[in-house]
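re: that chain from earlier
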Amino acid sequence: MYIILVYDINLEENEGKRVLRNAFKTCKKYLVHIQNSVFDGEISETGWIKREEALNIRKDVDSVIVFKSRSQTWLDKKFLGKIEKDKTDNFL
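^ sequence. v structure.
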């Protein structure tokens, strides 16, 4: 399945920076970093369930939104404004 993941980590609460680092590393490992706290990519349903648990967000102060689709071809994605590619996205 194809997903777009967006997270919002509260940095004002205790351990916010640690939670943010962990969420970023977990997402970056399995998805493509699109913009600040936005990631997308193809992942299996079971793969997603495992990664969802690895995010370790604090459900009382942090949030994650996941948009799911059968595949990227079922989604029309349009970028507006300046888009900077992550320099590590295109390693061969």
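The mean pLDDT is 83.
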